[in-house]
TrEMBL record:
Alphabetical UniProt keywords: Chloride, Chloride channel, Ion channel, Ion transport, Membrane, Transmembrane, Transmembrane helix, Transport
Residues annotated as transmembrane: 12-33, 160-180, 192-214, 234-251, 282-312, 324-348, 354-371
Origin: domain of life: Bacteria
This protein's name: Chloride channel protein
Origin organism lineage: Bacteria, Pseudomonadati, Pseudomonadota, Alphaproteobacteria, Acetobacterales
Membrane topology: Multi-pass membrane protein
Length: 409
């Protein structure tokens, strides 16, 4: 469905680029209205919601967050957001959808044990990540490093078994393709490792700054803009859509959608984008998130990282251009997510190349350290905390009706 949505958007832009000035504002306003009326709770990435359900003990709340209706809304509204030109990905929603399916399956089996329920949610989230990029190992690592890294209970053998089976099932269903295709590149130890230092520092700075901005925005946009967003969210989403359309016009459509086409072209050397591409894509991601519509951040982050690597490679003649693109991709991805092992494995699987593993690891951990200096807390963990706080406030203001019968007069 994501590919279909991208094709529809391409047709709109090909018909008249300025049409997005109408499509994007109207579309984002409609999506925001739908998340507040028809599909309540479908807004946001999906990963923070999944993390939160691993800590929420109220079964009714978990059932609502991981309901199949919410998952359906996540799929439909994310696809519609891609049509409207939002800079979003499908992997965040895929994680929540996968968790919802496994949660529904555990309920069907009649599992009431909390540990078993959390194991199924964890496995479903991993399967969603594996399916989004066809990277089963990264799905497993994502479950361990990101979804459960702050989970008090240690990951059990049963959980890992279900995660592995989920990843294998995902790759069996969608086929064995690689996101970027096969990359026959290497980064030998020596002068070529200047690229590791350069990309690691730049990616960590950019990714850490992005996370810090989004964490601050999750607490509420300051000033009159924040007041307007809180009181008139649909109108605010329309304004965000108009800004996205303007950014898209300036970039000639390069900032719309997931950024897969641009990242793939940069990696394969068929297109060379200026530094303005990753800057504008960066801004488009922030605006897309602030609008409150459903959508993930992984795929656009890969495009920003590829843009950084594609720009840096021209200054590093001693390193293979394709390798620098991979280093830029893993650096920004890790700087944003602060998950170095997941970032390394996901990029390694995307390019079907184990030769660059050491360089990817070094770049990723360097970016992780730089990002931590700017943003001490993990983006998804902070967003999950905000989600749980919002649920607690809602429960406090709307307590469930008492089951106690009133005494007879």
């Amino acid at each position: 469905m994501g590919n279909w949505a991208a094709d529809v958007r391409h047709q709109i832009v090909a018909w008249h680029p300025a049409a997005m000035l109408v499509v994007a504002p109207a579309g984002l306003a409609l999506i925001t209205w739908a998340t507040r009326t028809i599909f309540k709770g479908a807004q946001g990435s999906g990963i923070p919601q999944t993390i939160a359900t691993l800590h929420i003990e109220n079964v009714a709340v978990v059932d609502r967050v991981l309901s199949l209706k919410t998952s359906l809304g996540k799929i439909l509204l994310t696809s519609f957001g891609l049509i409207c030109g939002a800079s979003i990905g499908r992997e965040g929603p895929s994680v929540q959808v996968g968790a919802s399916i496994m949660h529904a399956f555990s309920r069907l089996l009649g599992q009431s044990n909390i540990a078993a329920r959390r194991s199924m949610i964890l496995a479903g989230g991993a399967a969603g990540m594996a399916a989004a990029f066809n990277t089963p190992l990264a799905g497993i690592m994502f479950a361990i490093e990101e979804l459960s890294h702050s989970f008090e209970q240690k990951t059990s053998g049963r959980t890992l078994t279900v995660v592995v089976l989920s990843g294998v099932t995902a790759i069996a269903l969608i086929g064995n393709y690689t996101y970027f295709g096969h990359a026959d590149v290497d980064v030998p130890v020596g002068t070529a490792w200047i690229a590791v230092l350069t990309c690691g520092i730049l990616g960590g700075l950019a990714g850490g700054s992005f996370s810090a901005i989004l964490i601050k925005a999750s607490r509420g946009i300051p000033g009159r803009v924040g007041q307007f967003a809180a009181t008139r969210p649909i109108a605010f989403a329309a304004i965000c859509g108009f800004i996205l359309a303007l950014i898209g016009l300036v970039s000639k459509g390069a900032t719309y959608g997931t950024g897969y086409d641009q990242a793939s072209a940069i990696f394969n050397g068929t297109e060379h984008y200026p530094a303005s591409f990753f800057v504008l894509k960066y801004l488009a991601m922030i605006v897309s998130y602030c609008s409150g519509i459903p959508g993930g951040m992984f795929a656009p982050s890969l495009a920003i990282g590829a843009g950084i690597g594609g720009w840096v490679e021209q200054f590093l003649p001693h390193t293979t251009p394709g390798a620098v693109v991979l280093l830029g991709t893993v650096a920004y991805f890790c700087g944003m997510s602060q998950s170095p092992l997941t970032a390394t494995i996901i990029v390694m699987e995307m390019c079907d190349n184990q030769q660059v593993t050491l360089a990817l690891l070094a770049t990723s951990f360097l970016a992780f350290g730089v990002s931590k200096m700017i943003c001490p807390h993990s983006l998804y963990s902070c967003l999950a905390d905000r989600f749980m706080e919002a649920n607690d406030r809602a429960a406090h203001h709307n307590p469930p009706p008492s089951d106690k019968k009133k005494p007879a007069p």
